[in-house]
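[agent] plan:
  1. take the single chain provided in the ticket
  2. run structure prediction with default settings
  3. attach structure tokens to the ticket
  4. add a short note for the reviewer (M.T.)
[agent] executing step 1
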Amino acid sequence: MLTRITLFLMILSFLPACESHKMKDLKAPESPKDGPAQTVAPGTPAGTPADAPAGGLAAPDFSVPALDGGTCTLSAHKGKPVLLEFWSMGCGYCRKMIPELPKIAEALPGLAIVSVHAGRPGQEEQIKAQFPEKKFPVCLDDGSARKAYQSVPPPFRPGGIPHFILIDAQGQMRKAVVGYREAAAMIAEIKASGIM
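[agent] step 2 finished; step 3 output follows
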């Protein structure tokens, strides 16, 4: 019995974690496996649908610093479908997702992508190095964006990272996707959501 417990604890210690001490409320996805994205709420078993209410739910606006020195707001993309991403440099799955985002932007030119770094502050140079070509805004959350989304119900409340919220052109949140996805899988998910 003691051997089994020790083995279990050793396995747990090797699992990757995408947590930052500044992101206590955001947890890492359990697997980076590609495939059909799942809409999940914290505590909802994988594969259980957790889609938006029939009428949709308005996406909260926020105003945070942008990586390029300006201001980043969700309302700047009013009238366009949006892929809103919450992520952190401290999350390996999040960093793995970075090169997939430009592919999504190229494949879906009518889609606005808003990438919100919700990890530790002071990583601007590291983040800039990850985004050599600016194809969409990269926001540096000062806590305002996370706070705006902590009051929304699951599955839209960020509970794991990377956390994506699919928002239609009317500003209604339609679907949430948690975890790494290759560009093709995320594009299929976006198209299936009906926001485009």
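[agent] step 4 note for reviewer: The CA atoms of residues 133 and 157 lie 29 Å apart.
[agent] ticket updated
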